[in-house]
């Protein structure tokens, strides 16, 4: 062997004999292959930690679609996935693979970032597009940024929010009377339709300076806003939960496709009515609405229509359902109702905070227990139970855990909100979880009923004002009771979370005021 190994280089042994050269060549190839395999597997390990989840086995796509096929059970399935799979997991819905972020730390990395690559919406919003067009919820990039800035400045600034108090008082008082009439017999009744009409009224007044009746008169009585939006919801929920129906050629064969055409026509009427100038009636003062401000900012008529439809659809039903769930939880917890009522009484009896029974903006900040109850009810029963992004910039969660560009990333809000690490005894209604100290001790990304970060709900402060002022007026006048049991109510994933059957209340006039 001696003479053949006489020439050595730093890279290895240079052979003179042919056989030796061949053998060593094989060895070299072998080692190179091992090295390549090792480094690529290392590379894979550093960049693609295996993400667990119900969709990670080879039949995942089928089992996940089947698991969600029964709408009565789907919200519970979401919750059980969140409880089982930890801070991140994959769900596989046919052509769509979705990474679910299920820990405040990971959620903060995406929602807390201002990177425009994290602000785009994913496949689940496709059914909304024909209805809401390219309004704020669906738009992205510079268009979204500009419209968001204009709407924040004109519709949701502190100064503008203050002006909504008069509508909240006026409409609130009107609906207290309607509630009194509905429940006068002492029988159990539903209240959801009244809440929907009330929030529709306050949102249209704020956004367009018009009442619902005025909007309808502009459309020559052809418009039923509630029906239009309810049918729209049915269409969106049907498509969103059946990935096949997201394919346009299949959707066109579905019976609801024809209904969608009618809903689109009706929405066009609604958008047009929202943007019409108010009739001049001597002595009548209108709110300005967003039209003039958006026009002045250079938004074209089509843009004003799409933003009007978006604000109305996004704002009224979410808020009505959130009040509905709050009333349910207060009816189930008379002890908290009573604490709220004491607090409300002291506000109503203060002539500065509530002159002539009209709640002032700063009165709302005194309703501390009420606000904790609102936050706790949004934790337990978050109306918007799901939202999603499609990322255009890689998202580094850990050194070895990176979500690539193009990944669909979703948030299952109720599952996150029931993590015992952040909310011990998560099924219980404990408003004290939202005391100032408790809030400070927890990541703000552990409570996301309005999402979070730059694309957080633009109307959340307005929604809080509506919820607080309405429930304060209600508890001042009435006592809420129910024979419902929370764990027996089936909630459906109808775009927003809705009870399968109407929730019944007994709302009695208060005797000890
Ligand atoms: C309790 C009531 C409400 C809840 C729970 C709620 C929840 C949410 C959530 C979770 C998002 C984020 C959705 C996503 O990222 O896809 C959102 C966005 C939005 N919400 Fe709300 N919302 C409420 C009330 C309102 C109100 C009163 C308005 C307006 C009048 C409104 C208008 C909007 C708009 C325009 C967006 C899109 C913001 C953007 O993408 O920049 N919402 N809302």
Distinctive features:
four-stranded mixed beta sheet; 513 residues; 11% strand; disordered N terminus; globular; Cytochrome p450; single chain; 52% helix; oxidoreductase; oxidoreductase activity, acting on paired donors, with incorporation or reduction of molecular oxygen; three-stranded antiparallel beta sheet; metal-binding; monooxygenase activity; alpha+beta; binds protoporphyrin IX containing FE
Secondary-structure map with pairings?
Elements: E1 7-9, E2 12-14, H1 18-47, H2 60-67, H3 71-85, E3 88-93, E4 96-101, H4 104-111, H5 129-132, H6 141-154, H7 158-163, H8 165-183, E5 189-190, H9 192-208, H10 212-218, H11 225-240, H12 248-251, H13 255-275, H14 291-296, H15 301-332, H16 334-348, H17 361-364, H18 368-380, E6 386-390, E7 395-398, E8 401-403, E9 408-412, H19 413-417, H20 436-440, H21 460-477, E10 478-481, E11 491-494, E12 496-499, E13 504-509
Bound molecules: protoporphyrin IX containing FE (HEM).
Protoporphyrin IX containing FE is lined by residues 136-137, 148, 203, 310-311, 314-315, 318-319, 322, 383-384, 387, 449-451, 455, 457-459, 462-463.
Please indicate the count of domains. 1
Question: What is the strand tally?
Answer: 13
Q: Which ions and ligands are bound to the chains? A: protoporphyrin IX containing FE
* Spatial order of strands in the largest sheet: 3-4-9-6
Beta fraction of the residues? 5-15%
Largest sheet: 4 strands, mixed
Structural class: alpha+beta
| Span of the ends, CA to CA | 108 Å
Top CATH class: Mainly Alpha
CATH topology label = Cytochrome p450
CATH architecture level-2 label: Orthogonal Bundle
């Amino acid at each position: 062997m001696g003479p053949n190994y006489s020439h050595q280089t730093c890279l290895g042994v240079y052979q003179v004999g042919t056989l030796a050269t061949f053998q060593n060549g094989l060895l070299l190839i072998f080692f190179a292959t091992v090295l390549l395999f090792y480094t690529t597997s290392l590379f894979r390990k550093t960049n693609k930690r295996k993400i667990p989840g119900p969709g990670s086995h080879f039949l995942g796509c089928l089992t996940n679609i089947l698991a969600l096929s029964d709408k009565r059970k789907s919200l519970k399935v979401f919750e059980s996935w969140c409880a089982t799979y930890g801070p991140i997991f994959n769900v596989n819905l046919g052509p769509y693979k979705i990474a679910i972020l299920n820990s405040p730390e990971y959620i903060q990395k995406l929602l807390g970032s201002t990177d425009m690559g994290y602000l785009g919406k994913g496949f689940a919003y496709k059914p909304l597009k024909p209805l809401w067009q390219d309004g704020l919820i669906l738009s992205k990039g510079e268009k979204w940024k500009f419209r968001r800035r204009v709407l924040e400045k004109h519709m949701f600034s502190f100064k503008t929010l203050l002006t909504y108090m008069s509508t909240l008082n006026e409409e609130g008082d009107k609906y207290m009377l309607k509630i009194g009439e509905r429940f006068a017999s002492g029988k159990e009744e539903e209240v959801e339709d009244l809440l929907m009409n009330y929030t529709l009224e306050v949102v249209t007044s704020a956004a367009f300076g018009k009442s619902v009746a005025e909007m309808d008169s502009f459309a020559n009585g052809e418009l039923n806003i509630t029906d239009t939006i309810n049918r729209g919801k049915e269409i969106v929920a049907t498509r969103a939960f059946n990935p096949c129906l997201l394919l346009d050629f299949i959707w066109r064969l579905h019976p609801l496709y024809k209904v969608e055409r009618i809903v689109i026509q009706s929405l066009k009427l609604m958008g047009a009515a929202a943007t019409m100038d108010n009739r001049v009636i001597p002595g009548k003062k209108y709110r300005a609405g967003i039209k003039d401000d958006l026009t002045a900012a250079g938004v074209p008529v089509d843009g004003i229509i799409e933003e009007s439809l978006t604000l109305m659809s996004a704002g009224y039903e979410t808020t009505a359902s959130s009040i509905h769930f709050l009333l349910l939880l207060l009816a189930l917890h008379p002890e908290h109702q009573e604490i709220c009522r004491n607090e409300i009484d002291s506000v109503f009896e203060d002539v500065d905070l509530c002159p002539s029974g009209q709640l002032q903006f700063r009165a709302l900040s005194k309703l501390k227990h009420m606000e904790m109850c609102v936050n706790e009810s949004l934790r337990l029963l978050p109306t918007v139970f799901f939202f999603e992004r499609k990322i255009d910039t890689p998202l580094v969660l850990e050194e070895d855990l990176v979500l690539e560009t193009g990944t669909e990333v979703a948030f299952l809000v109720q599952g996150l909100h029931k993590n015992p690490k952040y909310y011990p005894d998560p099924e219980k209604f404990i408003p004290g979880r939202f005391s100032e100290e408790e809030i400070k001790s927890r990541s703000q990304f552990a409570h996301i009923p309005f999402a979070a970060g730059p694309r957080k709900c633009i109307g959340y402060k307005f929604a809080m004002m509506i919820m607080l002022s309405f429930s304060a007026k209600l508890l001042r006048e009435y006592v809420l009771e129910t024979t419902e049991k929370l764990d027996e109510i089936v909630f459906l994933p109808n775009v927003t979370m809705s009870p399968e059957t109407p929730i019944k209340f007994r709302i009695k006039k208060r005797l000890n005021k």
